Queue: 4 jobs
Job 1
Amino acid sequence: MNLASLNGEGGSSSQLLFANFNQDTTSLAVGTKSGYKFFSLSSVDKLEQIYECTDTEDVCIVERLFSSSLVAIVSLKAPRKLKVCHFKKGTEICNYSYSNTILAVKLNRQRLIVCLEESLYIHNIRDMKVLHTIRETPPNPTGLCALSINNDNCYLAYPGSAAIGEVQVFDTINLRAANMIPAHDSPLASLAFDSSGSKLATASEKGTVIRVFSIPEGQKLFEFRRGVKRCVSICSLAFSMDGMFLSASSNTETVHIFKLETQKEKPQEEPTTWTGYFGKVLMASTSYLPSQVTEMFNQGRAFATVRLPFSGHRNICALATIQKIPRLLVAAADGYLYMYNLDPQEGGECTLMKQHKLDGSVESANEILEPSPHDRPLVSQTYSPPAAKVSYTPSSPTRHAYPEDQGAVGGIDPDDDLNIGTLRMDEDNETPPLILKSE
């Protein structure tokens, strides 16, 4: 959620410029006018700060790679420059400059994607080399794109048209186009992959219908109706990690949660009421109705809903399991993170459990609304203050020979002493995401 281009959108939290969840929704990144922060999402009761950096001002993009030390940063003071840092060590790994403003950055364990208005740069995250550039994309002023977090299905999705809702799917491992999906009649507003990279959710600027497609085939798997009364601006789409639920937030006060189950999985029950029989007859007659009406009957409705205490604010939603309970999380431009309980069996109206200020401060009047069983919170690490930032001017790029007006310029700091053991994918000693070599 980038608020840098939206004047006044910060509301009561005018310092807020950016907020986003990491790839597995275990932490929250917040960019502000004074720097950036990371918060742990291991507890409902407390928004525990993991790290704070105050040596970079006006942070409009901050993306963390899972639970690792790797972070990608863009500042309003240098909107064409991407910095990749080791935040626990307080050092800069590399930086790149691009020909235009950076609108979005996406990370997974294989690739780093930089989205400009009319081009996309694909970096190998292990050495930050530019592997491929997708040039002359349709105008994409919001930087809309999505990157799968799955190593085997490492796909990138982005708008294929500025006039209609075409989705271009690109294979970032084999560096080739995989498919073009005609998803909507109106231009795209939101895209999201599930954790397996085999499903892609889409929404258009009209905002009434949300579709889910198989990847890379592009077959329509599900179609959900968010509403019929009014067109809305979809702010975000997010799958649960198990791929069973899909949340959709907008500029209205309602967040919809859909359950991804096929008709075969639903129990077939004979109607016991007059309205039930009428509904069965009506559904049987849809083959004789106009296609638009038939589609409306076949579209799924929300399994659960959330009623936010505001409307009109930009926001980003996520589905996570915190302390063994499914939760819906909403980080909003009003400066708050809202946490709701989701009943995975019954659905219905979700219960607000807690709201936290995104600056990490505590409000004494903000109590848990309803008791729930909690596990012992995870113990967070204590980090020493960041070391003095490595300051350098990249020499003439030899590893990345891209002219300034045509591509990315920059590379790894040759004086950086990072090695294979200092940067981990997460806190469980996984394989490090970067293999840095000094030249």
Job 2
Amino acid sequence: VVSNPTREGRSLRRQVLKGAVMVFVTAGYSGKRFIFEKAKELGVRSVVLDGPDSWVQLLVKEGVIEKFVPIDFSDVDTVFDRCLKSIRDVRSSIGELDGITTFCEMAVPLASRLAEALGLPSNTPQAVDNARDKHATREIMAKAGLPTPRHWKVTSEADVPKAAAHVGFPAVIKPISGAASLGVIRANNEEDLMKAFKNREGSAHAPDVVVWGRVCGSIRGAYLDGAEVDCDLIFDNGRPVYGAITDNWPTVEPYFNETGSNCPSVLPKAAQIDLMELSVRAVQSLGFKLGVFHVECKFTSRGARLIEVNCRMGGGPVRDTNLLVWGVDLVEEHLMAFAGIPVRPPVARRPLKQMAEYTINAQKSGHIKNLDFLEQYRRVEGVLYARPLVQPGAKCHCVADGLPTWLCELMVVRPDVREAIAEIKRIETEINHELETLIQ
């Protein structure tokens, strides 16, 4: 019964999870507080390893987490041994561990190695490294017979002309390992490509970017046309037990800054099936067995194509979207997977809600006077949130001056997803008009 994808099965699994001791490798930014609150709600005893000045230590005083262990992650040569010793000390003081995990992209390689060393449920470090290295991902997919865009690994300026000749234009330059769209640039010609690589080369070894491993070089691939989607997957014992597609809206190029999304998808059913099948096969080809995956794809004029596999839950609105539309809590299922509990989420047969969300990117540079205008949208029926992402007086940049600043975010539900899309676009137009006078 505990393995049944029913409410009764989930209730039993929650009983098994209650009291589990879980170690989290880094807490991420304070916006991830909801993860630890959910863990507390489920009865999980959370131990967090993070930097000495981490915000998460406040959660000990609030009773949300059981223990905070300060760790200096800057020395990558010794961080594994120091984390391992700290975890063993925790085990001696509060009892046996049930799992080690993380919800932070940069910490996944370290978490997988720690779990492996202690014989706890995990994906292999090799699988994690394969996903984190975008060049390796494409090489593995090609060997597995999966569709793979043309690509070239650029490690020096001498590689730029070779990449240009092999891939063609437009193209995308992307760090071999990274998170979200950081460092991702569209290049329309060889001059753009060389400039993007030089800029990336200058920042590749910035401090406190990498928790484990290395960031070196860039992967340069063919620009993919078509609609972009997120495929959120849950795996148990090497097979998918949940999958859902969210449509991503056009990004702000050349930086590929995210804008909005909607769920359920409005793409043709055949396209959704192709995208889901590619996502599942990509995760399997990389060697993953368990947990939550955030797979980014495009449905191009040549069919479904992979952008990347993220071996952790997606950020931003991803958790809210899956819970709202399909009734699946990715945080809960992730915790169960890494505690060694069968993962079989009950999934709604039809969408529970139909939603669209949007993040406003600054259309001009300057200082924003205030974001008081958001209050009027909080009172609109169907608006789940309208919240600022910057403080009054903050400096913001438009795309002409670099990576655009995210100013605020909204989420809307309507009886039909197309109505939600129309409503959020109406609000976007009004807000951008308001910002014309508020940014000076």
Job 3
Amino acid sequence: MKVFFHGITVLPLLILWSFICRMATGEEEEVFDFPKTLEEFKFYFNKEGQLRNVETDEPFNFVVDPDNHKYNQKRYEALGNIITDHVYKLLEDHKLRRVKIPVDPKPEEPTSFFYMSEDALEKDKLLILIHGNGVVRAGQWARRLIINDCLDSGTQLPFIEWAIKEGYGVIVANTNYNKANDKKDGQEIRYSETPEDHMECVWKNFIHKSKASAIGIVAHSYGGVVTLELAKNHIDEFWRRVFAVALTDSVHSFHHQNGDESVIHFYTERAKNWASSLDELDTPIETYSDYCPTVAAGTDKHEYTSYSSRFSIFKFLSEKYREMTEPGGEKAESSEKESSVKKEAEETAMSQDISASQIDVEMNSQNPDESQKEEL
């Protein structure tokens, strides 16, 4: 409840006063000591990529102490940090290597990093993956899907595996790693002060210098904002080299980000946004404030949009690549691979619906604060 006094909201003042009193009396915030590995947490990922308890084989339960929400929340966050390291290892298992930035660090200067396949800069075609904002890091679309559903739905691994199979070099951005040692109170990292700065650094120092003549981008949520900034800063190069931009529930804004006519034209020709919606997958959605063609992602769950639309995105990327590289490519018939992708999408549509409903139940029974703000 907010209390007003002469037009001033008193609640923030009360919170501040409580903090001052706590400091004055020497009362410190409670510190919890949580395990540092999945094994110590007594969790593991089964063959289906689902997080399970080692002893009971039960899924993760947010509420372990009904009378201490703060403990439950801190425990969830501690597990989330372990998940981040686990996904980093999975990227490395897929032969992606960690690359530090800035490229010219001074002694003792903090650095950020991203991931890319060994031959990414030598490949003729390149796929760039950009996650949303918040707690997610390289290789993740949504942390709470990794914890409550499975690795495939919450990570970028299905996209990485498809890209490698199709002959792409792969770059996985890490746009939220902005401070030393990834700590909230850490020193800002040069050229990675913001998600936009991080991606600009990766573009200028690596993507721009790569041999790729055909570049595809897949970006989720705030990753769409980052991508639009890149397009604005490098629109001529985008027209020459970027054959497609696939967005999932992007929160970009041509108005607020001041996208000019050339940028808008690029998006109308080579981009598509799969938005959360109750409509069936790929149903066109009419938008009045966005120039980017928009279709339904096949789910109304924001964090699930990348996974639910993945087969449509693969098809879109293949078609746009053919348009850019083959004469009359836009009129060419679908290849056998694309037919296979379509068939697989149809076969898994029902299982995706079931999975989404299961996520719904699990999310409603578990309500970690961080899950509400983990990514945009």
Job 4
Amino acid sequence: HPEIGSTGMMLKLGLLVILACALAAQSADIQFLDLATEAACLDGSPYAFYFNPNASSTRWSISIQGGGWSYNETLSYERSKTTLGTSTLWHNTSGCECMYVLENGANDETCNCIYMPYCDGASFSGYRADPWPVNSPTAPANATLHFRGQRNLLATLEYALQNHGLADATELVITGGSAGGLSTFLHADQISAWMHAINPKTRVAAAPVVGYFLDHGNYADSSFTYPSWMNYIYSMQNISGALHPACLQAFPNDPYKCFIAPHMVQYVTTPFFMFNSRFDLWQLDNIEQVPCMQDKTYNCSDQERNAITQYGDDFVSQFAIVPTLKGNGAFITSCICHGCPWSDVSLSNLTAMQAFGRWYSGESTTNIYIDHRGPNGDDTMKWSQCAKW
């Protein structure tokens, strides 16, 4: 599948999720971390985050960028030459969205906001102290990579706690889109533990956006699958130290499964509200690998349409654990999207953002919203973000 290895595709994906989530984003300044912290991008450049303070608020948001994954050394080396692998190309300012919602569903931007750009290729999960050889015919003979995603996360928290007042937060919402959504699932408990060790009264919640990627085969029934790619990343980047200990105990023979949301979500104790599509466009393209989604014609045969419909049913099956987990919420749309129109799609007379706001405020006892219709609401949805099929 050529787009799996396409750096341009990864960049477009990262930008798509940022644009979809940044409804009224603040402008945040860059803060580089010392290399002594071991925080670094794939190319070894120092990691940095963006911070927008708000002296009048004790609310905080941490927003984690998405942008796919780098599934092997060759793709990691390619990524290291882009904004998803080096900080040398980053701008001095960036948008930063507070994940708090007003009654009408609009964002409430009165918070201290940290935006974490993505440059490690493994959802802030890898750690190797020493550089890793590329050993690829497309890279120089001595080319190496730095797998420091876990340190990027923890060093950012350390700096914000010590220098920006994060220790005084009364509320913290962790969010992220796509690979950043998976990061939110993976690391919410770790971040929560850090916060509560310093301030046990801080309310911590998570809002992963399009981060629920299925453990699933593909349309061609080949071995070229998303789970196999994530398994390789698990070994290549040495990510076991970042995964949930209870999940690792549950999968002693297949620990990489704890890097895939449906397997690890039941172990997350931080309250979360997830946003996702049953017919996630990226997943139909890259996990199910439906030809009409891959070639971007969206002119699907009956067989391809059946596969898409089945994927939606499989999503519901792998999602079934979530409603049994007390205190959480979800909005699952049928729009074929990845950068979804969350301020527009609605169920039970609530947009996704309104549903999240009601969950967070405790106004509603019904917090699981699932659109069980076929793709695009049985073809009634006309938003541009909903792909044809």
